[in-house]
Amino acid sequence: SSIEPPSLEASLFGFSSQISDASFIYLLIIFVLLFLSAFASGSESAFFSLKPKDNAAIKENPAARAQLILKLLSKPQELLATILIFNNFVNVGIVILSSFVLNDLFPTQGQFAPLRFVIEVIGITLVILLFGEVIPKIFANRNALKVSMVAAYPLRIISKLPPISWLKMAL
User: Fold this and answer.
1) pLDDT band at 110; cut points 50, 70, 90
2) pTM for this predicted structure
């Protein structure tokens, strides 16, 4: 009988046995939320960095999507409120679910507590900033018209969903 070398999964600090099925689901949801954060940040950048030639092209375009962009831009404060409220909800969701996953990997007490703190504060913040904010804004700024066209309908739907619609009324 030969001795098998330890698998990579088993050698990762022995965490693998502690990851629950719920954590895998949370990780999937975190990726979806990260995509939604990127969508919100990119949309904000796209709508508010449209150039005069882009606005002229939108005004000349008879498509319903172009008309919706004009309608959204006619109330810039409401559009910005929708995007920012939505993005904050999404980012809070990422932080909360990340905390649940980290509970499986690193207990709040014990030898991994400092590592958990670093991952929670620095790691998650960097992931949200890089993939949910900076990269999408750069992309959207360079492709403002295309991103605005893609984002128009989802933003209209998001603006009508509670609690975002309620919070906008309160502003």
Assistant:
1) confident
2) 0.84
